[in-house]
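pipeline/complex-builder :: batch 7 item 3
reading input block
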Amino acid sequence: MSTPSELQLYNTLTRTTEPFTTLEPGVVRMYVCGVTVYDDAHIGHAMSAIVFDVMRRYLEWSGYHVLHIVNFTDVDDKIINRANLLGIDPHELAERYIEEFLEQLKVLNVLPATRYPRATGTMPDIIGAIERLIEQGYAYAAAPDGSTAQDVYFRVERFETYGKLSRRSREDMLGGTRVEVVAYKESPADFALWKAAKTDEPAWDSPWGPGRPGWHIECSAMSLKHLGEQMDIHGGGNDLIFPHHENEIAQSESLTGKAPFSRFWVHNGMLQLVNAQTGQVEKMSKSLGNLVTIKQFLIDDDGAVLRLLVLGSHYRKPLTYNEEVLADTRRKLERLRGALQGATGSHETGTSVDTLVGAAAAAREQFTFAMNDDLNTSGALAALFELVRAINVARDAGVGEGPLLEAQTVLLELAGVLGLSLEASTPSTALEVGPFVDLLLELRGELRQAKQFALADKVRDRLSALGVVLEDTPQGTRWKFER
RNA sequence: GGCGACGUAGCCAAGUGGUAAGGCAGCGGUCUGCAAAACCGCCAUUCGCGGGUUCAAGUCCCGCCGUCGCCUCCA
């Protein structure tokens, strides 16, 4: 069977929370829909990547080996349009954005996926899959009158359980107002597997003439290629449930004859942002034009801030992004990091040490309990904050370096499971100005000793205005950058 | 219009039918030359509204109101 695990995961397919098990003991096959690369990625994309990174880290921490596949859609209308606009090759444009996105994921401390397949790198598999779907009667080629190049459509009628993921009836689908009317489709609900090339478009040779794949088939082909006929977890944003994931199920299950295509379907909620123009709260999205790019975000904040923001609420809920929430999150991160300060006392035994040891064990337990409950990261963070307090209390009580470090190691370990790095990143500017700040602190220290407090405070205030915050401690004065 | 999710303090947010975690902000105190940080204390008789089930409901059921998402570009 599978590796025993206490993890309970919400499954969109069944709309219930179920005990997590795997097809193969100890191995998790996980496929997450990546981005269509035609423009700068925004923090909504980052949120999704972070959510599934946390899931992957937690599974690994729980003892699983995780095969984590993330695809890139690198051929589609938007990429082509954008490339034409810029007068460059679509493939080159896509690769440029992929590279940039991968670089940003690194800064966000998202572990690299096992593989990052591209649609354009999976073409023989895609064409093969479409051929088999046609052979089995699940798909048909069709063309407008007078054209030789053909489209291929999936025959939705043939797939009896169509709609099971998104809980839509076929009548609902046919009643949809936005269904494109194409005369040569058998049914308006049928969706494209292959699109005949128009002029000036990238095209691949196929039995149906030059063309390119539809959006959904690439995921079916890639998951089949890299994970096999069935997988444990298929993830993505909840805006992909319909039609994308519904169509993937139809294609894959028709192709393999095996169901379920994925045993768990996991969807994250959307990042919401107030639209500056309308004042409406909306999903952050490229097409709506209300977004903060990852690039923009990283100018003012380090990646841990975004991760902590995402961890603060449950992954399935919509998350509102605004300045106030951002400011809160920065302070939260400071509090977590503050707990890593060294010992000031030297008690290696005693009740305060015992209390700290107990608190660390309790935190670990509370953390695991929360994470097992459908990745309740907010509850997991509460466990970390309680450990933070215990550490601070212990330090104040004079607990020595040994026991304190032990508790701090637990804090770092649990934070690490969430992908949160608590070691404050040192801005390069800090390295440059460090000696000068130290010089000012030395002079200020002499002023304080001479009771010249007005001057000493002036140094502190002026540094503060420049973003350098001072903290006087019995061990001397510490300083750090603050936004 | 159809389908779905959500509505918990000033803000963010967790919550297995048994009597409201955690964080931010705020207030009072300890420490400090003063701050900062840290610590201690205070901060929702109440969980959108109205019914119902139950010995017991934020948690289950029904209705209403509000917000958001999807309905073939979307993480």
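note: Confidence is low (pLDDT under 50) at residues 175-179 of chain A.
queue -> next item
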